[in-house]
C-alpha cells in the first residue's frame, strides 16, 4: 500500500528525534541539502513560512518606529577587530574572501556573521547631535557562521535572519528598547507560531560576544530540550566607544551613544517543527501555514465532484490559503497522509454523497478530529476551526512545558529529573561559572536564562550549596 | 542664508550630471559609501523605495504563480565551471572565499554573481516527471560582482535584486514566461516608477552569458543616456543539459527542461533619480515615495498651529504616507528646500492665517505649482494631486524620450545626432558585430535592443550599408 510506505519513510519521533527532524525537513519539502557544504536550499513550502514570520514581525517592528536598511555583506578585517570580545567570539567561525576580480585582496573581507561592526562604523559617520537620535534600523538578510556540525534551519552555515541595531541618547532608552524587542519576539513565538516561551536574561557565560546583557526567549522541543528562539542585546557603550559613535548631548557635551541589537532567524522554522510535529509529520500553526485548508475530492472522477470542489475552493480562497489536491495519480488515502505529513491544519473531504447532503468533512491536523459540516456554514466553520487549532496547539505545548519542568534543590534531584523527564529544570544558582560548568558536565544541561518571573526556590545554589543569587532555568539544548 | 547654502551643495544637473547624481544619493540620504570598497549602505529613505518596488513586483510575480525560495550565497567553483559561456562571463568578476572556520578550503567558493548554477543543481535533484513542472521560483537577495568602477545603485559591487529561475516542459512555455516577466518589469517601470521604457531583445554581443536570448527594458536618463533597467533571459537547454535537469515527458521519454531567468535590482533606484531629478534634487513618483506629503507648519510657535498640523497629520495618515517637519531648529524656507531635495511629491504649508480661513497650501514637487485648498476637501485634493503628479512625471519623461530620439540612416547623421542631441538613435543594422563595434568606437553608443515595435527605416545598415536585418536602438549608457 502506498499509504503505509509513505509514513514508514519517516523515523519514529520517540525513537530518534534528531533523525525524525531531518526526515520532516526533507520529506515535507521545507528545505534540501545544497551542494555548498553545511548550507541548505529553502524550498517554496519552507520559504512561505519564513515570509509569514517576516511579514508579521516586520509590521510589529515598524509600529515601534523601526526602519529597514541594508549594509554590505562583506566586512573588512580591521573593522571586525575593533571590539575585543566580539572578534574573539566571531573570528573563529567566519568565512574569508581573499581574492576578488581576479586579484588577491590587500585586506581580507569576512562575510558578515552579524553586522555590529560595519553598522557601527556608519553610525559614527551619521551621528552628530542628540537631535539625530535614536537610530532605529533593521535589516533582513543572510549571515554566515562556519559551524562544524550543522542541522537544517537550527544550525546552518548560512541562515536568514533579521538584525536590528539601534542607538540611543540614554542608557534607559536603550535598555527599554532591548526589552521591547524581546516582547515582540515573545509575541511572534506565542501568538503567531503557537509556541510558548520563557523570557529571561542570559548568564555572563552565555551572553553575546560584546554585550552588557543578553535577553532570550527559550522554547521547548517535543523531546524536552531548549531552543534559543530569539535574542536581544544591550551593549551599553561597548561598541560606541571603540567605534567612536558620539553625539553632542543636550548640555552641549560629547557623549557616546547607547546601543542595542536583536535578532530572530529561520531557526524559528526549526522551532515550529520541533515544538508541534508528531509521528504523522509536520504540524503547522494555521497563522503561518502556507496551506491552511487542503481540499481532497473523494471519487473525483464522478460527475460533479471536481466542479463542487472548484466552487468551494473559490469561496474559501477569499479568506483562507486553500489548495485543491486533484492529482489523479494518487488515492485519497495517499493524499490524506501526504497533507498530514506537510502539516496542513485542515483537510476538507468531499465526495458524491456529501454533495448530495450539502455537507463535507473537515479533519483537524492537531487532534485528528473529524467534523461533518453543512456547506452553508462552511466559511464560518473553517474560520472558527483555524482559530481553535491555533489555540489548541499553543495549549498542547504549554501543557508539555508544564509536565517537563521540574524543580531541583540539589544535584541528585537535578540529575534524576534530567534522566527521567528530560526538560527544563528550575534551580537556584550562586552566580559562579564553575557551577554552570559542573552541571553541564554532570547532566548535559546548560543555563538557559534567569527568567523574568523568577521565583525563589531556596537560599542555596543547587550545585555548590553556597548562597544563591538567582533562579535559573536549565536544559539540554539544540 | 541657510537656504541657499543648502542648494548650492548640489552640483548643477546640466554641468556635471554624474556628480549631480552622487550628490543626490548622499544628500537625500538614500545611501552612503561604506568602508567596504565599492559597496554602499542603503539608508532608510533609500531602502523604503526598494521596499515599495519589491512589494509591487512580488505581488505581480505571485499572481502569475511564482513562489519565493532561498538558495546558498556561496557557490562551489566546480558548479560555476559547468556552463562554458557562463563561467567566462562571470568568473573574472567574482569574489572568492578561500578560508573559513580557521581553515583553508579544499575548493574555492564564490559569492553568487547570479544563481543559475546552484539553482540548476538543485533543480536536477528535484525534477523527475513532466507532472512536477513548471518550477516557478524567485529569490530576493544580494549578489556580488567585482566591478572596477562603481557608482551607487547603478554599479555597486554588491547590490540587491530578485532573480527568478523557472524550468518548463516545453520551449514555448519557457519563451512565453520570459516575455511575461519582461511585461511585468515594464509595468513596474512605467506604472510604479513613472519611467517609460522600450522593450526589446538584445543583440548577440549584448546578451547574458549562457542565454539563447536576452530581453530588456531600457529607460532614458535626464542627459539622454540609456539605462538597462531589467532583463529576462531565455536559456533553452543551455543549462539544463550540463546540469542534467531532465524529466520523463508525456511520452515516457527523457527530455531536458527549458529554462528562463529574469531580474531587476536596486539599479531601479538609480533609474528613478536619473529619470526624474532636477536642480532642486530628487523627485519621487508618489507611488514609491516614502513620504508622499510633508507638512511644514508656518509660524509653528503661534497658538494652535501645531495642534492643527497634528489634526491634519492624523486625518491624512490613514490614506497617505505623511510626515510633519516641526523641527524648531530650521526655518520654513530651509524645510521647503530640504523636502524638495528629498523629492517629496507634495508639500503642505499651513500657518495661522490659513487656519483662520480653514485652508492650506499644497505645493507640487513635479512642477512647483501652488494650490490653495479648503481643509474640507483636503483628502480628495491630495489623492487627486498624487495621481496627477504620478501621471505628469511619466508624461514628462515620455516627452523627453520623444525629443531625444533621432532616426539616422548613415553614420554621419548618427554621429551628428549623438553630438547635438544625445539620446536614442533608431537605425538599421545588418546583424554584424563589427558594425556594432565600429559605431561604439565612433560615437560611444552601443546597441540597446531590437525593439518589439520595430519599424523599418530603410533597407541598409546604418554603418556598412549592406542589407539590414533589424532596426536597433542605440545609445550611450550608464
Q: What CATH architecture of the largest domain in chain A would you give?
A: 2-Layer Sandwich
State the assembly state of the protein chains: homodimer
CATH class membership of the largest domain in chain A: Alpha Beta
Largest interface: A-B, 57 and 57 residues
- Find the CATH superfamily of the largest domain in chain A: Bira Bifunctional Protein, Domain 2
Query: pLDDT average of chain A, as an integer?
Result: 96
What is the percentage of strand-forming residues of chain A? Answer: 25-35%
**What structural class do helix, strand and pairing data of chain A support?**
alpha+beta
Strand order of the biggest β-sheet of chain A: 3-7-8-14-11-10-9-22-23-21-20
Number of domains of chain A: 3
CA-CA gap between termini of chain A:
36 Å
Spans of chain A with pLDDT under 50 lasting ≥5 residues? none
Measured as a percent range, the helix fraction of chain A is 25-40%
Strand count, sense and barrel status of the largest sheet of chain A are: 11 strands, mixed
Shape of chain A: globular
Instruction: Please compute the radius of gyration of chain A using only Cα atoms.
Output: 25 Å
Which key phrases capture this entry?
14 helices; Translation Initiation Factor IF3; Rossmann fold; alpha+beta; homodimer; 11-stranded mixed beta sheet; BirA Bifunctional Protein, domain 2
